[in-house]
């Protein structure tokens, strides 16, 4: 039974001495996750495909006290050879990891279905979408999440062995787009993110026997290179309120913040009684847009 002082926020959500890995950690939601973890004491390795982005993010956002943000790689999570190299490099530096945040992802080709003409929509879809585009989106947003997790499972299992039952975990960054029925013109992206959501559930069940939890965060609109196509000199993006308000289906009338993403990550990282869940952090969009 806990004493009241044990329930202070700094005790409940401290990740001091945690070793974390964040894919896609150089910008956007991945960087928000890395910042939230490092700010609360974790050593956070961020990886991605662009060395300069990783170094700039680490230099700009590493905390001054206990936590760290450390560039790892660069590595491409869609290549087994890179995942093996990443696992080997991590194993040379750390005996275990406590948390993997699988945040690497890409958007997709678009074909707006805002027409009542089947002929017109067929024209748009065949002109703007490709088999290759669908495959690349699924490969990055679903398949790579699976192989990244599998590549790091031994280190995660070692994290549980060093920190106690079901302490090590994976947080898969999916999307509200994988839960809603509105295609948003992104049939390939939304269906891939639906696959990401279900993959997290499959892994949560199957990897429990290895004492590793798996949960997912389904973000709504957050500022990132995916949503704004750019980052500033600190690898941060800006998504103005009016852009969100134009969409007409976001009750909060703004994008999500770094703080709100960090809160979600810390909750799932520390609460061992949560496994196999999908937490939507979407400003209430799924109260307005039909879900599945």
From TrEMBL:
InterPro entries linked to this entry: NAD(P)-bd_dom_sf, SDR_fam, Sec_Metab_Biosynth_SDR
Sequence intervals crossing the membrane: none
Ranges of biased composition (kind: Basic and acidic residues): 230-246
Key words, A-Z: NADP, Oxidoreductase
Annotated SUPFAM superfamilies: NAD(P)-binding Rossmann-fold domains (SSF51735)
Region Disordered, annotated ranges: 223-246
Entry annotated with the keyword Coiled coil: no
CDD domains to which the protein is assigned, alphabetical: SDR_c (cd05233)
GO molecular function, one term: oxidoreductase activity
Family to which the UniProt record says this protein belongs: Belongs to the short-chain dehydrogenases/reductases (SDR) family.
Protein name per Swiss-Prot or TrEMBL: NAD(P)-binding protein
Upper lineage: Eukaryota, Fungi, Dikarya, Ascomycota, Pezizomycotina
